[in-house]
Every structure is written in C-alpha cells, then in structure tokens.
Amino acid sequence: MTQFSERILKTPASFIREILKVIQKDDIISFAGGLPNPVSFPKEALKQSMERVIDQYGDEVFQYSSTEGYQPLREWVAKRYRDEYQMDVQAEDILITTGSQQALDLMGKVLINPGDALAIEEPGYLGAIQAFTMFEPDFCPVPLLDDGLDLDKLELILEKRNVKLLYTVPNFQNPTGLTYSVEKRKQMCELLNRYSAYLIEDDPYGQLKFEGEVFPYISSFGLKKSVVFGTISKIITPGMRLGWICTKDRELMSHLVTAKQAADLHSNIFAQYAVYDYLMNHELNEHIDHIKDLYKKQSDAMLQAMKEFFPDSVSYTMPKGGMFVWGSLPEGESSLKLFDRAMEEKVAFVPGNPFYVDDTKAVPTFRLNYTNSEPEVIREGIRRLGKLMEIY
Amino acid sequence: MTQFSERILKTPASFIREILKVIQKDDIISFAGGLPNPVSFPKEALKQSMERVIDQYGDEVFQYSSTEGYQPLREWVAKRYRDEYQMDVQAEDILITTGSQQALDLMGKVLINPGDALAIEEPGYLGAIQAFTMFEPDFCPVPLLDDGLDLDKLELILEKRNVKLLYTVPNFQNPTGLTYSVEKRKQMCELLNRYSAYLIEDDPYGQLKFEGEVFPYISSFGLKKSVVFGTISKIITPGMRLGWICTKDRELMSHLVTAKQAADLHSNIFAQYAVYDYLMNHELNEHIDHIKDLYKKQSDAMLQAMKEFFPDSVSYTMPKGGMFVWGSLPEGESSLKLFDRAMEEKVAFVPGNPFYVDDTKAVPTFRLNYTNSEPEVIREGIRRLGKLMEIY
C-alpha cells in the first residue's frame, strides 16, 4: 500500500518539464517553453536597485518580513490598477505571492474541498490544472471560443453545479494566445454575478498587447466575487518569483494570508525591495514597449513562416500579444505523433494534451512559443515543421 | 453556508503574527519573535556576490529555472552534510525550497490524507502545526522531555496508529531550546526503523551550538525513512527564503518535486546564485562562529537576569545554542494572563498556547527569544517580568 497522499498520486508531473529535459541540447529549435526573451530583464537597472536598497535599508531587506508583502510594493500594484485600469484597488487588496503559481496554490487551498466543482477554460493553462489537481476538485472544462468562453456551456455548468472557482486567462491566453472580447467580458460579468463562484482572471500577458489600449478586466464591469492575478515574470523577471493576488473580498483575503503564511511565511523581501526600487527609478511602460516591439517581430516571423510553410489543413490562432500561437492539425490527427517526428528534425513544441483536464486523449492541437528564438531561427523551425506537415 | 475549504477553516492564523502586530511600537522590549540578530546577515558580502553573479551569469539569474534548485547549490548542501555530519548525501538528494516553511507544506501535501496520524513534539513548532493543519491530519502529540521525545509514549502511538510522519526539531528546539541526547537519537532510530513513519528532522538551529561539535542527526544512525530540513535563515539571511529538503527516498523526492512545481515552480534563482557565490567566497564556519559568540552573550545575559529576577517557583530551560528559552510558571497559572500584564509594562513574549496542538487550554509555559535584543535591554526586560512574577 502506498504511503503517499491521494492528492499527490492524482497530480501529474509537468509534461512541459519532461519535454524541457529532453530538449536541453543546444542544436534543438525550441518552441516548447514559455520563457520570456531575456530582453525583458532590466539587468543593469536591477543591479543598481539591489545595491541601492542594501545601502539604503540595510538589515531590513535581509530580515523576516510580513506575509502580505512589502507595503510600498503593494501600494504600487494597487496604484497601477487604478491608473491603467481605473479600478478601485487599494494596497490592502494586494497580497504579494511567490510568483502567480503560488496564487493558484493558495486559491485552491482556501476554496476547494475534494469533489468541489472547478470550472476552467478548455484548453487551459497546465500549471493551473496541476496546482488545482492537488486539491482534488471535480474539473468542469468550458470550451474556449475565439472571443472567450462559451457562455452557454458555462451557464449550464453554473446552473447544475455549485461551482467554487472559475479560472480564466482572458488576455493572450496560455496556451491559445486568444483574448476575450470586451462584449464577452461584459456578458460574463452579468452571468457570474448571478452565481457564487469566484472568478480568477490570471493575467501574466495582458500588458504585452502589441497595439492599442489594454482591455478592461471582466471584474471591472462590477463583478462581486473577483480575484485578479498579476506578476512581474513577463515584464521584469520570472527568476525572482514575484506575483500578486488582487481581491477586495476581505474574508477571502484573510484566509489567503493565513494560507500564504503556512506555505512560505512571506515572499523574498529583498526581491520585493529591489523590484520596487526599480519601479520607482524607471518608466515601466517604456520598458514594456521595448518588450512588445520585440515580441511583435518574433510573432510576425512565426506567423509569416506558418503562412508560407504550413498546409491549409493546419489552422492556427493569430495572437495580438503575449507569447503563444495555438495550432491544430486536421481532426483525428495526433500532435503527439508530430512531436516525436519533429524531435527527430530537432524542433520542439508542446503537444496539446497537457492543456486538457483529461490529458490521455489524442488531440490534434499544439502550442508554439515565439518569444525565446530569433526571427531567423523561428523561420527555420517552422519550415521544418511545415515539411513534416505535408502528409496532412 | 461558507464557501471556504474545510482545511482553511481549521487552520489558525498565527498567534505570533498577531502578537507581532501589537508590539510594533518602539518602546516595547520584545522577546516574542524569532528574528535572528542582523549580525547574521553578511550584507556587504552578499551585495558583492549579487553584483558578481549578474556580471558573470547575466540573463540566467533572472530567467525561469529548474524546480529542484540551482545545481551547484544543491551540491554544496550535499557536500556540507558529508563534511560536517559524515552523511552519504548527494546533490540529487537535495530539493531547494522557499524557506523550510515550504518544506513543511510540501511534506504535508505529499503524505497526509485527512485523518492520517501525524506525530509531533509537544510543545512543538507552531509554524509546523499551522502548515500541517492545512492537510487535516489527526495530530498525535508526543511529550518532549529534557533529553528528547518520550519514547515510551511515542512507541504506544506508533503501535496504535499508522503514523505517516513524525515531526521533530532535535537541536535547540523551537519553542523549548532543548536538544535530544545522542543516546536518545540512537534509540529513536532503532524504534522508528520498526515502523513506516517518515521522520522529519527540522534543523534551523543545529549549527548555532555555542560550544563543541554539532550532534549527529537521528537518521545518521541508519534510519530508513528519513527527511532532514535545512535553511540559511539563521546563518545567512531569512529574507531570501531559501531552505532545503534532504532525503534519499527517491519516490518521496519525486513527489516532492511535483508538489514544489505546483506550489511555486521554483525558488528565487537569483537568490540561489547569490548565496552560492557567497558560500564560495567566504568561510561559512567563521561567520557562524561570529553569530554563536553573539548569541551566547545574549543567552548568558538572559539566563543571568532570570536567575537574579525570577522567583524559584518559575522554572526554565538552559539552552546550549539556538535562539530560545522556555519557561514555566507554577502549575495552574496562565502565561496568557502574565502576557497581558507584561504588555502593560511594555515587555512582550509568546505565551505557550500556540505551541500545543490544542491551543485553547490555559498553560503555564512561555517562550523567550534572546537573539534580537542587546544584553542590557534583555536584562531590563527580564527585570520587569521578574517583578510581575512576584505573585507566584
């Protein structure tokens, strides 16, 4: 008899992690990971900020600190929601987390009893599936359409089940790159206000919109049970593991703080001081513009190459921001088989499987990341994939 | 009806955290927290290491990284177990965690089903009680004697229950400051090898032994199901949140890695590089000697003042390392009442309650921390407490 918990036996090791192990070799063109381009790391500026906070604050950047996070950083995050999204957010509505991966863990911890209904986009972010699986929910996948969730299907599920949580990535979704339309956001807000589920809007990519204004959050149309996740991972550095949860629900926040304390006491306080100092001394939006310009070029390179090399029977999304393109082979084909052949040609991507709650079925879909390769490398990788796709 | 999970509704907010909020004022003498003296933070050296790793490694210190941790740091930790404890530990036996608080969360996650028996020292570390409560175990407290656990009581519990985990802090225990004798360690090893429970030896303070050689781990006598926790929090910096789990159990390790990945992907990689660079360029044992000298002076100041000012009816431990003294008022008295009176005299400590699995009973015990006040301040605080104790 196993000694291990039921929750861990149910939780899959990450498929992507296993893939990343295989493709560590230098000569493989990888569209598999979700790594930001290092151009997004303001290295020298962070180095100066680190020196400055040590000189300026001394011991307190190395000491134990408060679970909620560094107060000035919480205030900065709140102000950004006010300035960029016209949302009524204060510092007390912000809990600093160890990356937004931890935010997933904490939300699962404080809300999910085994068997509770948890609605999630299909396909959906595999890190969320993994984190929530740990709390043994009954996953209710909701199909993702081009303009956001299928609201008819969502309503059926909300009617039938006491859904605790609805997890979404409304901007440049992982894995599809799709974005919810403003109209759909309004409709979702109206629908959800008739039920008791908390909506999570996990938003690592929203700031990376290639053109035009950022979209309003679903919750900004007046949603009562709202939780928004944010992170510096895609705009400053992922290695520091800093994200946050934003919610005005005081009871939920109080439970999240207790869960966070039990999980790791607090997030790296030195990193919080350093990042705050960086934000005070640099214009974040200019830095983000720089990242967007680069990602737009990389995305264009991928989409142009796909147009040139992929057969018409292979469809794909055309993201307007973020880091991913989502493709689909003809119905009935298996992207996992394509993956095996692609590896022989030294090109890697992620087959669609781990983005479905039931990851055992063969699926024709696959995810391509464009942020971590140069345009000419992207073109060559897509060319090789296109060659393999000639059979479809 | 509440929407929140059963686990979070059972989990207490930290008592100490609530106390720390009350005593933020400058004029309060606090023996309440468990903060290391800032002398243990090698600030300038860490600053140099940070500059160096940014210059030397560039982007990779800011990028996503592996769940297991920075390989050279894992190797350093393994080598330290080999060199200082003659234990057969390799890098693959080490998982870097976000402080050892996360190690508690991960162990609970991968082992504990609701209702599973979990044995723990009584009194025991409140952070462990809080972290494990989240997984709804049936706590089986085992009395802590002057030389370690009461093995007769432990054996009764092991006989009766299928204990999944036994949690201990064998060196300068939190809250008591007590240390398991070498003889008791051998006996525990023999006893535990007859059962299937994993032993956790959580060891934040073991290196802070004022005099003589460090004690061997219980597991070093040949324990099969062994997990040792370590941390840099008390010897370098707690603010960076870096600890580790050491186990040679491959199946357990594989589950821990999956749980860690779901929890926060990986620990701050920049901090791992910086701390490793610090370790490569400085003699850690010399730095630890410096901390020990200081803590010994602070401990002496507290014990001398207690001898002078406390009535004979109040007993206390005489720690030979670590950060805490554990006191006891006469049987039947409540340390919580003393706490209220002490706050009026502007002295804070932690009443014993949160260190018991059932924290609702009045207890005569209390914890004093000596590492975060100057000797003359310690003396004044103990003098005030002694005055309040004249009624016993």
Automatic annotation (TrEMBL), chains A, B:
E.C. number: 2.6.1.1
Domain Aminotransferase class I/classII large: 47-385
One record GO biological process: alpha-amino acid metabolic process
Domain of life of the source: Bacteria
EC class of the enzyme, as a word: transferase
Gene Ontology molecular function: L-aspartate:2-oxoglutarate aminotransferase activity; pyridoxal phosphate binding
Keyword annotations: Aminotransferase, Pyridoxal phosphate, Transferase
InterPro entries listed in its UniProt record: Aminotransferase_I/II_large (IPR004839), Class-I_PLP-dep_aminotransf (IPR050859), PyrdxlP-dep_Trfase (IPR015424), PyrdxlP-dep_Trfase_major (IPR015421), PyrdxlP-dep_Trfase_small (IPR015422)
Keyword Transferase: yes
Essential cofactor(s): pyridoxal 5'-phosphate
Assembly and interaction partners: Homodimer.
Family according to the record: Belongs to the class-I pyridoxal-phosphate-dependent aminotransferase family.
Name of the protein described by the UniProt record: Transcriptional regulator, GntR family domain
The organism of origin for this protein: Anaerostipes rhamnosivorans
Lineage, top ranks: Bacteria, Bacillati, Bacillota, Clostridia, Lachnospirales
